[in-house]
Amino acid sequence: DDATVGISEFAQGQLGEVVYVELPEVGTTFKAKETICTLESVKAVGEVYAPVDCEIIEVNSKLDDEPATVNSSPEEDGWLVKIKCTGSATGLMDRAAYEKHMEAEAKKE
Predict the structure, then answer these.
(1) Mean pLDDT by 10 residues, the chain (109 residues)
(2) Which residue, of 8, 27, 59, 61, is most buried by count of CB atoms within 10 Å of its CB?
(3) Would you say 84 and 51 are in contact if contact means Cβ atoms under 8 Å apart?
(4) Model confidence over 4-22: pLDDT tens digits?
(5) DSSP conformation letters of the chain
(6) pTM over 0.85
C-alpha cells in the first residue's frame, strides 16, 4: 500500500513558521520510527518519523522553495513524502483516535 506522510494542523501550530524542510531522496528506505525528514521553524527543529517500514516513492519538491506551505496547508498541499509501506501498519491511529489524542494533549498545556 502507498501512503502520504505530512504533519497535522495541530503539529504545524506547535512547530511555528516552517522556514526549511529537509526531505529524503526517492528510493530511500526507513524502518518504523526512524526520522524520515526534518522541519526547521523559527522556534525549533522538528523531526517526522516513519509511521511504518517504508520506501520513499515521491517527495514534495515544492517545499524546497515554499516551506511555509507546511503551515498554510499541512494536510493538503504541504504533504512531505509519499511512501510505499513495506511493513505492518498495525497500531497506527485513525483520524478519530488522533483527534482524541490531540484533545488530551491540548488539555495538558
Answers:
(1) 92 93 98 96 93 97 96 95 92 87 82
(2) 59
(3) no
(4) 999 999 889 989 999 999 9
(5) -EEEE---HHHHHHH-SEEEEE-PPTT-EE-TTSEEEEEEESS-EEEEE-SSSEEEEEE-THHHH-TTHHHHSTTTTT--EEEEE-S--TT---HHHHHHHHHHHHHH-
(6) yes
Residue type, 45: V
Calculate ∠ Cα 15-20-26, nearest 5°: 110
Residue 51 near residue 3, CB atoms below 8 Å = yes
Q: Vertex 35, ends 102 and 93: CA angle to 5°?
A: 35
Contact assessment for residue 18 and residue 32, using Cβ atoms and an 8 Å cutoff: no
